[in-house]
């Protein structure tokens, strides 16, 4: 299991995948908004989205787990 974590504090602007989706390494999975900038959170490896832990509008802190890949 690989975790996708927030690289900085911000608000979840978009969730680009759903649980069960297959993703490639480097694919944008979630977009955070911080200080009026959009920051894509990317999958570290290829895999399947096992669990999404956030939804649009959620506030996250640096290091929070956003999604889990299997």
TrEMBL record:
Keyword flag Iron: no
Organism: Fictibacillus iocasae
Protein's UniProt keywords contain Aminoacyl-tRNA synthetase: no
Lineage: Bacteria, Bacillati, Bacillota, Bacilli, Bacillales
Name of the featured protein: Acetyl-CoA carboxylase biotin carboxyl carrier protein subunit
Cross-referenced Pfam families: Biotin_lipoyl
UniProtKB keywords: Biotin
Domain Lipoyl-binding as annotated: residue spans: 1-70
